[in-house]
Amino acid sequence: DLDMVFTRELFPRIRHHTICHKQVYFPIIFSQYDPHYWETTSTQINFSSFHLRDDIGYWRQYGFGMLGIYKSDLGSIGNWNVEINGWGKEDVEIYDKLVKSATLNVFRTIDTSLMHVFHTKECSPTLQDDQMKMCKGTKSITLGSQRTLVKHVLKTIQLNKI
After folding, report:
1. What is the dihedral of CA 80, 65, 125, 140, to 10 degrees?
2. What is the mean pLDDT of residues 121-131?
């Protein structure tokens, strides 16, 4: 994923949690909210220092795009589905295959060495229904925390005297 930044601690962690013929690693990554909704100014954030705070992002519990796996283990479950077009679903499909594997354990944990940098998401109208649902869900959750969004809604209501 080109929108990921990471620290040097990532590589030993991948090597430790990825065990050939035994275990794959699906890190739970920190994903930034839209900076327009941050409770702090973007100039106060130094991306290289990995400020992982709940006002600028969230832990992506249901994100399966990052994966540590040996090529032979990937082959043993049938590889990536290259028939999927557009945004999403291929990572969820791989995760489902790995969870069902009789020989491979799926290891998930929060990984503080990975951060997904915010970018706008466009959900193409040509996506399949399940992909569109996933895309819109991800798009909406990356706006901001509930607390922050409530503050913006209340501010808008006050300004418009609704």
Report:
1. 160
2. 87
